[in-house]
Amino acid sequence: MYTQIDIESHFDGKLKIAYLNQPETMNALTKPSLSDLKDFVKECSEDHTVRCVAISGRGRAFCSGQNLDDAFVQGNEHHDNDIIRKIVTDYYNPLVTEITHCRKPVVALVNGPAVGAGAMLALISDFVLAVDKSYFAQAFSNIGLIPDTGGTYYLPKLLGRQLANYLAFTGKKLSAEEAKSYGLVAEVFNEEEFVPKSMEILEKMSNMPTAAIKLTKKAFAASYNNTLKEQLELEGDLQQEAAETEDFKEGVSAFLEKRKPNYKGR
Asked: How many other C-beta atoms lie within 10 A of the C-beta of residue 166?
């Protein structure tokens, strides 16, 4: 089904990992790979057996950003003055929307450089686990473009106006540790620990009450535009929705019975 990504399944199918699989280009993004990723996230979101989703890269890089050959050389598209708008509208924006609204937690496993759209692919995920040798660069300005893949929306909110401007204007590389210090990365591991430590976290996420995580994502997303009053009202609504899930009933029963809960994500 997928031509540009590899899929791994773990923990009886509760975890699905998509690997960008174009190591010869440092996993540069193409229209087929963007479509594959969008379809993968959508299918995981709708599959009740999947509890956690992850995105990573094969080889030495996470993702080097847009493949410019794919954008400008293939066919006759280099004659189309609106090609960039069409790629953003038809390929990047649908992927950003799927990741943002995915009903499952989406984790970026940054195994190497994450540049341009590749950096934003990681940063729009719910959280990032990175190897210490990786780095993040908003390289759009280096070729005369602006941040896309949700960059103009998320970067000021994640970093504040000053730092977002600085990184977007200069294209400065941030080491994994620097990115963590700015709140862009959740955890950084050395190369030997990266896979086992990441899998520990992903296994835990795969056994969490996914229904509540979905509602938490919804509440956090709404907070960008809500007043405090609106957000408090939303919290009440979503908390009631969470209290009506099977996971909540299981969590309370497990607590009272002093045992480990067995969540189903429903």
From this structure: 13
Q: At what angle do helices 151-159 and 161-170 cross, to 10 degrees?
A: 130
pLDDT digit string (tens) for 101-156?
Answer: 999 999 999 999 999 999 999 999 999 999 999 999 999 999 999 999 999 999 99
Distances in whole angstroms, Cα of residue 247 to Cα of each of 220, 243, 263: 20, 8, 5
- Count CA atoms closer than 13 A to 214's CA, side-chain side: 22
DSSP states of the chain as a string?
--SSEEEEEETTTTEEEEEE--GGGTS-B-HHHHHHHHHHHHHHHH-TT--EEEEEESTT-SB--B-HHHHHTSTTGGG-TTHHHHHIIIIIHHHHHHHHH-SS-EEEEE-S-EETHHHHHHHTSSEEEEETT-EEE-GGGGGT----TTHHHHHHHHH-HHHHHHHHHH--EEEHHHHHHTTS-SEEE-HHHHHHHHHHHHHHHHTS-HHHHHHHHHHHHHHTT--HHHHHHHHHHHHHHHHTSHHHHHHHHHHHTTS-------
Confidence of residue 76 (pLDDT cuts 50, 70, 90): very low
pLDDT digits (tens, 9 = 90+) for 188-219: 999 999 999 999 999 999 999 999 999 999 99
Nearest to 139 by CA among 118, 108, 163: 118
pLDDT score, position 1: 77
Alpha carbons within 13 angstroms on the beta-carbon side of residue 51 total 23
